Amino acid sequence: AGGSSQGSAIKIPLLPYQKLIIAHASILGVAFLILLPAGALLARYLRTFSRSWFKGHWIIQFGLAGPLIVIGVALGIASVHSEGSQHLDDTHKVNIKYR
After folding, report:
1. DSSP-assigned states of every residue in the chain
2. Which residues, at least 6 apart from 81, have a Cβ–Cβ distance to it below 8 Å?
3. Residue that wins the pLDDT comparison between 91 and 36
4. Distance set, CA 40 to CA 7, 25, 55 (Å)
5. What are the pLDDT digits (tens) for 38-49?
């Protein structure tokens, strides 16, 4: 038929702190699940074939994964401190030190 049908899902736009959380998870996922293992595997297998394996290992670990980890952690911190975030919004989530 010619009419357009709408799905039953309601699309709610993400809040700014939620966008930061998604960016934080995505960037750290790439860094920890793809780049760090790739650098370790490159070091493990290329050292038997080439004397320059360390250069590729260093580039992946420190040149690519390192900056992504720093950016991902910064985004996580920013998401906790951004407006609208509900981190530490009740006494259950706050670390209270007793005397």
Report:
1. --S----S----PPPHHHHHHHHHHHHHHHIIIIIHHHHHHHHHHHTTT-TTHHHHHHIIIIIIIHHHHHHHHHHHHHHHHSTT--TT-STTTS-PPP-
2. none
3. 36
4. 45, 21, 12
5. 999 999 999 988
